[in-house]
Each structure stands twice: as C-alpha cells, then as structure tokens.
Amino acid sequence: MKPIVVSVLFFLTVAMSAQAEEALSVTPEQTWDTVQEQGDNLLFIDVRDPVEIMFIGFTDAVDRNIPFQLVDRTRWNDEKGVFAMDINEDFVAQVDAALKEKGLTRDSLIITMCRSGSARGKPSADYLLERGFTNVKYIDNGFQGSTVKEGEKKGFRVQNGWQNSGLPWSTKANPEKIYRP
Questions:
Q1: Within-domain flag for 16
Q2: Which residues pair with 112 in a beta bridge?
Q3: CA angle centred on 131, ends 128 and 133, rounded to 5°
Q4: Which domain holds residue 77?
Q5: How far apart are CA 112 and CA 77, in angstroms?
Q6: Is 118 part of a structural domain of the chain?
Q7: Residue 146: its pLDDT value, please?
Q8: pTM above 0.90?
Q9: Based on the structure, what is the number of domains in the chain?
Q10: Is 8 contained in some domain?
C-alpha cells in the first residue's frame, strides 16, 4: 500500500508543478538573435491591440500581430482612466492557425511581446502554457520599455524594451502581419 501512496503523491506533485509553470522572460536582444538564427522554427507574436501598434510602432521581425486583449471602446475603466480590455476569445485558435501556417506545433517556441512585457506579454504567455502550449516565453519590458522613475524624462518609456534597444522597428505596421478581425 505504501508504494502506491508514494506513487500517487509523486504523480500529483509532478502534475501540479506542470500546471504552475510560468513563462520565462527573454530580452529583446535575445529574441532578435533567436529570430535571426531560428526564425522558421518559432512563432514571434505581437500581442498588442492593432490600434496601439499604429500609434507606438511595430517591428517586422514578428510573424504576426495576434492581440491577447482587445480594447472595448464601449466600456471605460474609471480606476485606470482607460477603455476596458477583454481577452480575445479567438486568441488560442489564432495562435494555433499561425503555428500551422509555419508548419509548427504547440511544442514549438512561441515568444510574445506587448508594450511593457508585464500587462499582456507575460499574461499571454502564461495563458498559452495553461492551454497546452509547452515552450512559451515573453519579452521582458516589451516593445516600448519601462518608464523612467526620475529626472527630466520621468514617466516616459525611454529605457529598455525593443524600441530602445537599437533593434529594427518602424512607425508603420506591415499590413500583411497586422490583426484584422
């Protein structure tokens, strides 16, 4: 009886740790190098709302823009002073389709990128891991980077992130890669 209990406990521990797995971060530079070296073997997705991309910028290094959350312009979030955002109900299906288009599977490397890395980058990567994808990472500090805490540029996103790392980006989005419902 004791070996059975030990086996069951071991199985439960492994199963619970697999469910608690969190996505690991990568830097913009690490992502750029990986895209250059293994671009055909990974899916790099920008998970921002396409309107945000239109105003902030875009890198053509991404395979596709698949928003994790979409802005709902009919609802206002008083606490944050912004429009409400809801999870894109088709996010997983759209990621699956993008993987299939590249001949990849849910075990292939997926890298997500949002504006800052924390609001949608990491949550979108964790969301995919929770739904059976096995190798998902997110870009730390995202596309635009984090805000400066002091000095003349306090509050501006002028440090780290893709945009501030000297990597290629543009104010124009690639219409073939941008999300369209």
A1: no
A2: 45, 138
A3: 60
A4: 22-181
A5: 25
A6: yes
A7: 87
A8: no
A9: 1
A10: no
